[in-house]
Amino acid sequence: MTKFSILDLCPVVEGGTISQALDATRQMARKAEEAGYTRFWLAEHHGMAGIASAATSLVISEAARATSTIRVGSGGIMLPNHSPLVIAEQFGTLEALYPGRIDLGLGRAPGTDMNTARALRRNLDAGAQTFPNDIVELQQLMDDPVEGQRLLANPGAGAKVPIYILGSSTYSAHLAAMLGLPYAFASHFAPDMLFEALHIYRTNFKPSAQLEKPYVIVGVMGAMADSDDEADYLFTSALQSFVALRRNARGKTPRPVESMDGIWTEMEKMSIEHTFQFAVVGGPEKARAKMERFVADTKADEVIISVPVHSVEARLKAVGMFGALRDELKEAA
């Protein structure tokens, strides 16, 4: 049966503060654990007024501290922004604090605009090019030390935090298959290469010490409510955010609106609706039909759901409803 997880961006909403965003993430983690989700992931973004998870490992620690059983981790850490040693130390520390509960999802995008990326990285071009080697180095730093090993991560050595490759292209599919690592595809905002990437990953997968057979996680945007109309209304926050992103006018997560008319152009509407083609938005019946179809089409081992909703209360309710939907699908299987 397909597992369900939550991807939280620690959103800073219009009318809200960073402190409130961090508290909402703690509430979301507790709700996800209560509702029986497999994992709760946070993503690294920088220089964005609407996202408060820039210091990703710190926010992961808060989510783990607020819970007791659910796996918590990154979806993901943008490894080219960091040295492998620093990430080994950070996640080795997290593993020591919360044993057996930490995941390390890795991506190669900057997670920000180019100016901020330049400030984060000493060599902007080298980051993506060295990504495969950096992953291997990171694995070695978190594995058991070998005789004569000169570079040690402490904490980190022996932590063996499971690594996941994140991506939105066929490059990441080839890499995850070659390294024998679980693969998470960002179909929640990059749908076009989903099925090609999954085919490449499954076809070319090579077993590794971490993983014997392919393991696929797929992302969806989601908004569930008591009715289709209410869910559509809540999801307009995500639609507005993506309009702003297209216009390079990023801000806090906007309040929902009754209609997007006059907010987006016809071209923006077509583009964003295409981007969100897999989004699961609706009341219980509509959401179930959409999720059933998506799971059947992807044959995913796990679905990770992002809930881009302004109201914390509505976000928490949606997490509970998606958990109930998972249970319904399990009973029907």
Automatic annotation (TrEMBL):
It comes from Martelella mediterranea DSM 17316. GO terms for cellular component: cytosol. It comes from the Bacteria. The gene is luxA_3. Residues 14-296 form the Luciferase-like domain. NCBIfam families: oxido_grp_1. Pfam families: Bac_luciferase (PF00296). To bacterial alkanal monooxygenase alpha and beta chains. The lineage of its organism: Bacteria, Pseudomonadati, Pseudomonadota, Alphaproteobacteria, Hyphomicrobiales. The keyword Metal-binding does not apply. GO terms for molecular function: monooxygenase activity; oxidoreductase activity, acting on paired donors, with incorporation or reduction of molecular oxygen. This is Luciferase-like monooxygenase. Keywords: Monooxygenase, Oxidoreductase.
